[in-house]
Amino acid sequence: MQLPELEEVLFLKRYKRFLADIENLEGRKETVYCPNTGAMTGCDIPNSKAWISCSLNHKRKYPKTLEFMETMGGIVGIRSVLANQLVKEAISSKILTGLEAFELVRSEPKIPGENGRFDFLYSDRGQPIFVEVKSVSWLVDGLVGIFPDAVSTRAVRHLHALCKIREEGGRAMLVFCAQNTGIKIIKPAVEIDPAYYEALAKAMDRGVEIRALTCKNDLVNCVANREIPFTLT
Known about the structure:
Blueprint: E1 7-15, E2 19-24, E3 29-33, E4 48-54, E5 64-70, E6 75-77, H1 82-92, E7 102-107, E8 120-124, E9 127-136, E10 138-140, E11 144-147, H2 153-167, E12 171-178, E13 185-188, H3 194-206, E14 209-217, E15 222-227
Parallel strand pairs: 9-12, 11-13, 12-14
Antiparallel strand pairs: 1-2, 1-4, 2-3, 4-5, 5-6, 7-8, 8-9, 10-11, 14-15
Helix pairs in contact: 2-3
């Protein structure tokens, strides 16, 4: 995926969940939009190099958006929903093996019989398969991506819904997409969210398909370029 034109800045702090203060290369400070609902553990380090985009929508209160951060491990994508596009492109370009017959039916399908939505509904030779995507940014031990970085009841609900689809005879898939270019393997954060770990173990036992991708990002293009291992421990 081709990225929008980016401006290099210095990240100062994040606050009120969706706001961040930055300083441009001329020393001018301003507030930008932070498109991330998570804790951003390991990413929101003051005085880190960062990159922002600027919207042409002049009605926005904060026209500039925090897009990427530089960490000790690599470049990290801050926009969580970017992971959906990366996974969609990876499936289309056959990066995930065994999914060559996948055809996209729709994005954001309703969870059958429940409130809420999954990220994608695909068809595999006529068989529907629901796909949920999770963006992974927290890097530990130099190569391990950890999810979640904070307790996530929403992520647990998605796992329960994927399990229900399997129990009713359908196909369900969870794709972890590492937006930190340093991540080489992905694991669940059992110490952070034991309930998520237990739900994930149950989902795997029920036959929910778990896949993981990492990305390559040169700040001009960003692609989920290869599959990486996922492990419970």
